[in-house]
Amino acid sequence: MARMRNPRRDELDEVLALLNRVFNYEQIGYDPIKVRKFFDMLETNDVLVMEEDGKIVSHVFMKPYRMSICGAILQGAEIGAVATEERYRGRGFASTLLKEALRKMGERGYDISTLGGYRDRYSRFGWEQGGAACIYKINRRSVRCASDFSDVELSKYDPSDEVLRRRIIESYERNQVHMIRQEVEQSLIYDAPALMGMEIWIARSSEAFAYLITRRSQNGSSIQVLEYGGDPKTLALGIRRAFREWDIEEAKVPSPNWYNEFTPFLERMSEEWSINPARQINILNLWNCLEKLLPIAKRGAEEVLERLSSPYSLTLRISETGQRATILFDRGCELTEEKSEEELILDRCGMVRLLFGQGRPSGTLKMGRRMASHLDLILPLPFYEWETDMR
Q: Is residue 385 part of a domain?
């Protein structure tokens, strides 16, 4: 008979063997040694397994995190390595583990949970595509708009340089969005990247510094930028030098989908850009998400909110969990515990699309004109994740 439990430390080899059979880490570009270091970092009570016939046959982990978004701190957990041995599939083992993970995360008071993977597989548990990433596409022609790069040098990062390592970490932590990383996480990203082909480059001018983490395509003609930080102009000029020195055809550079210090430089040197969901999100605590992120989201609309002619309130409610929060518009915008006469009831995925969609609510969900005109002033809430924090 199958039973759910936390694995013991001495069962890590058995867990990794299962995961490697399912995912084949080397084939998808991961270094198995670095994967082992990642799992060594996890606490056993953050890992759930199903055991049957005396062996581990299904697995999921929760990786707790604290994320800073424009100064607001979200507490959450990344769900990963959802896997079941092939001959045991179709019996609901993974579903059982995910439901228990949701229960534990809610019990711990987390605000959100994030994951990657197939949308249709996870939407029935409440995860939905959310947040917004702007992907800038830069080619050989458009990169010339970055102006003269002769003052910028590009060099490969040396992990033994402690001063440089600290400067990279400080630059990352100055980004408007960043995880509050533990030392072991810093090491897995900067000292021994788990993803094969990841490279860290330093761009320096006489006065400024920037860094970027990249991954090249198999033929070497394009790069995907996974993370960056530092001086925006130096970063842009460093990318232009990379086109010259690496002989690349195209670079894709992600950014949070709101105006930040990198926006004007990336727009100037890009041929085009597109908006994509940043991650699959599950709202675990509706009130906390609004309380923490609403003050940031409403900054650009404060003058309009102050001029609203009459008070208006709206209660948002998640149908499956019963969680609710009321937003009061009255010479500003704030949360209140009082229930409004007007209520918008959505399932968990619908609430993600409302709060963390890629566009305004009026273009995302069907609703009345007055409700839409008010919610359009404050939503969507800001959310973004760096590629390096998804692994």
A: no
356-369 residues labelled b (16+ CB within 10 A) or e (exposed): bbbeebeebbeeee
Q: Which two tokens stand for residue 159?
A: 């992990």
- For residues 254 and 156, state if they share a domain: yes
Domain containing residue 196: CATH number: 3.40.630.30
β-strand partners of 72: 69
Helix (H, G, I), strand (E, B) or coil at 265: helix
DSSP state for residue 8 in the 8-state scheme: P
Are 50 and 82 part of one and the same domain?
yes
Residue 128 lies in a domain: no
CB 93 within 8 A of CB 101: no
344 inside domain: yes
Q: Among 230, 250, 276, where does a domain finish? A: 276
Tens of pLDDT along the chain (391 residues) come to: 899 999 999 999 999 999 999 999 888 878 888 889 899 999 999 999 999 999 999 999 999 999 999 999 999 999 999 999 999 999 999 999 999 999 999 999 999 999 999 999 999 999 999 999 999 999 999 999 998 889 999 999 998 999 999 999 999 999 999 999 999 899 889 987 666 778 999 999 988 999 999 999 989 899 999 999 999 999 999 999 999 999 999 999 999 999 999 999 999 999 999 999 999 999 999 999 999 999 999 998 999 999 998 999 999 999 999 999 999 999 999 999 999 999 999 999 999 999 999 999 999 999 999 999 999 999 999 999 999 998 6
- Give the domain range for residue 156: 134-276
What string of DSSP letters covers 40-73?
A: HHS-GGGEEEEEETTEEEEEEEEEEEEEEETTEE
**Domain identity same for 145 and 271:** yes
On the 0-12 / 13-18 / 19+ scale of CB atoms within 10 A, 185 is middle
